[in-house]
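Dear colleague,

Following up on Tuesday's group meeting, I ran the structure prediction for the two-component complex that the binding team flagged. I've pasted the input sequences exactly as they went in, so you can double-check that nothing got truncated or mislabelled along the way. The structure tokens for the whole assembly follow below. Feel free to forward this to whoever is handling the docking comparison.

Inputs:
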Amino acid sequence: MADPLLIFDALLGVALIALAIAVLVVRDRFAMIVLFIIFGLMTALAWVRLSAPDVALAEAAIGTGLAGALMLKTLHHIRAAPAAPVPVSVGVVFANMGFCAMVFVGLAIAFMATSLEAPGLAPQVAQNIDASGVAHPVTAVLLNFRAYDTLMEVVVLLAAIIAVWMIERGIEQAPARHLGEIYRGFARLALPAIVVIGTYLLWVGAYAPGGAFQGGAALAAVGLLLLLSGLYRPQPAHRPIARLGFVLGIAVFASVALLVASGGRLPFEYPPAHAKTLILLIEGVVTISIAVTLAALFHGREPEAIPVSETRA
Amino acid sequence: MILDILALTLIALGAAFFVAGTIGLLRFPDTLCRLHALTKADGLGMGLTCLGVTLLAGSAGEIARILLIWFFVAASSAICGHLIARHVRRATDTEER
């Protein structure tokens, strides 16, 4: 008798492939985005089945929730300024197919070359977890053992928001109409709860699934709610605060690394006695930066002065 | 044992309501009818599922979290239904003008 969950896993796998094909095949952009969101939710479920709740949380919060919101917002922008669809040349299509095939072959080779019995790095992580300052192996890896990679992930977000603020010109500056009084009431109800959940996700990352990216995504949802309900309107005067929010995480992260390095250690080699404090400090500021950056990405443009005549209620 | 059977019955009943809601979503003619089927059936399905899971929960903390999840999912699905209906009404208003 096979494991009954095997049937579920097989169905999940088939559904994932079917959804991936459907996302690419469907013609309507809105349907495409909705299918992609469902695909993300199913992927999160698959990560849960693979016993990777950290990845599942990140996939659900960032890969599905926020990415979906960003795509829907982009669709709104495109609809506001309709442009003739640019035909894609056959060469570009084939180049893309070639790149995808290369990624696929690379992954296949990597998978084939790895023996299934290989222990991986898990024993080394388990051996050194006491020196990392946290009890959860994923957080230990992300914020301590490979902190440099994590710093670069935050830099990617900063690069994205710089690009968005630079290129997003010429789109109407008048704020979109807010979603109504009932939605505002819901926002007032949900906002405090999301703040608690985001902070909890950050705090719990020390010993359970959670952490800066998941907490930051939850807190970014606060920004989305505020923007959609019209309770907050980005003003040009708020630009310095936003810029501070964007760079705060990277600045503190890098300063900690440099300070540690100045004490005769390697960068990111936190002294074990202070590792917990330093990791919590870094995670806290990185969470703020991620939240501010993601919310600003959703707004999609640098806040500029709006002439009174263009504002709508 | 009795508690387990009761919990499983409630969860199965909840799943049945989700299926009914989905059939309504697929079969009903326009958006408002679909919303009607989906929000009501899913709300009940969600409540029954949460009730069943609560019976299986181990501690008071877990029960409190399940109830919180139930509350926020119920609230957000009600708001979603409202927003979609509002959008539909506005869209049809502009067509008739």
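Residues 2-96 of chain B form one domain.

Cheers,
M.
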